[in-house]
Amino acid sequence: MEHFSHITDAIQMASEHQNGYFNTLLNTVNDHVVRLSVMTEPFYWHFHPNSDEVFLTLEGILLIELESETIELSPGQLFTVQRNIPHRTAPKNGRSVNLTFEHQHMETVRM
């Protein structure tokens, strides 16, 4: 497992990715990881059978579509999607930048 002992500038990294979908590992915390995602298009419907997934929006508005409702996260807002809950994410107005916190061995099942 890679260990990080330096400052990571997530905002700078995000500014280098303006189009499409970008997702990268930022850091590890015990048996979890912190990932940066930049979205300009929706992600596919999926669920995670072995891990909750926490979203923290840094820029833009992130839509988290669940089967029964859609959550809107503005910068600084955080939401947890519990394991086994089908969901998909999308930027509301063209682009969103988000951190996700998840188990390092999280499984993703595409629907």
UniProtKB/TrEMBL annotation:
Coiled coil: none annotated. Residues 43-89 form the Cupin type-2 domain. This is Cupin domain-containing protein. It comes from Dyadobacter sp. 676.
